[in-house]
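step: validate -> pass
step: tokenize input -> pass
step: predict -> running
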Amino acid sequence: MNMIVLLITTVVLWIVVAASWLQRLYAMPRWFENPPASFERIRRQSKASRIFWLPIMALSLISSIASLIMNWGYPDIRTYMLIALACFVLNGVSTGLYFVKEILIFARMPADAPQTPALLTRTKTWLKWTTLRNVLQVFSAVFATMAYLHFIK
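step: predict -> pass
step: emit ->
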């Protein structure tokens, strides 16, 4: 059972990585190509995003915690899962404290609002930091993978 939970965790974390990088590379550049008019794309995708991201992130957290608990007696796996979980939690905290708040502000901005230098700086900052978030997700998935591979050795 431990191996199955680790496998589920690993697969789910890699799904998060793939989806977030696809979103970062293809959707987000269009969100910010001509702000605030392009923010309409954020508004149109927000419901679908919530329907996808909330359950997958909840499943990621639950399976990561379950993997950690179920494999606590294996020091190497425990270390890998602690690092994976730390990256995941850091990503989640930053998402809740900054990224969601900012994206909601962008989505509520009227399309005909002026495009100011401050707004452009804000969107570039958001994109730069979201890339770091994506890297944290990769680290989380890599360490979960290392835990799984260590288990099957």
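step: describe -> The chain has a mean pLDDT of 94.
step: cleanup -> pass
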